[in-house]
Amino acid sequence: MKYLPTLLSSLFILFLFGALLGCNSSDKSNIKASDKPIESTILAQDGVSIAYEVRGNGDITLVFIHGWCSNRTFWREQLDEMAKKYRVIAIDLPGHGESGRNRGEWSITSFAEDVKTVVKSLNQERVVLIGHSMGGLVALEAAHLLPENVIGVIGIDAISNVESKSESGMMDRAIAAFEADFEGTMNAFMPRMFSPNTDSAIVQWAAKSSATADKAMAVSIMRGVSEIDEKDLLSSAGVPVRCIYAASDDPSGPQSYVEINKKYADFDAVFVEGVGHFLYLENPEEVNRHLLAFINEIENISH
User: Cα–Cα distance between 153 and 219 in angstroms, integer?
Assistant: First the structure.
């Protein structure tokens, strides 16, 4: 069973067992970490608006890319903390959050082009892309599109065993459920992506936020993700790739990915115990600690 994006793959597993059935800107001014984030929009290549916010200052820029049906507010436990040392940009990919929804065709490649548009518009030179779940795929593709800017990629519960193959059959059932009742299916699905001990308020907030994503986008990405060659994405990124995974007892889970993925890139990973797919919301202190360590490592490699 394919693991990445974890959010979508876990959804397919749940369906298999019936669990879910029954203003443009080119600002590069210094921003103090204590300042409020600067929020703005820019137009994508196809004219769709991309909402983003910028905070902090530093020689390294961190670009946070959310997962499927999430948005930039999901990084609420990371942005201010990282802005104490780095310049931080958080993006709403089109179809999510405050960004536009009038795109004709949805794909990981178009999302990567959106990231490129923001990075180039803001003239960022040394960039680390940080992506959760689907956002990890977007980050790998964007790194390939930005070889002169990106120095590393960090995935949060993203980037699976790239040699695994998707199973067909479950996709159609998942898509049918979301097409029939997008909000209801999302509300049933999201709690299963958190550990049982997670504050219920966080789970409810995440479910409600995810249900506001564009339905056409969500379904289109679900259809297209199985066609992505993750080996090619990982090997063509051209930069160090690091991951922070939710630990699993499954022998085919994330602990098994490291040696496989090392064949295709400078790859390594760490694991966080007792958390679900949204580990950066569930245990932000540990995730932030690993983020800082990986960013420092990537910075040292790039010199």
Answer: 26
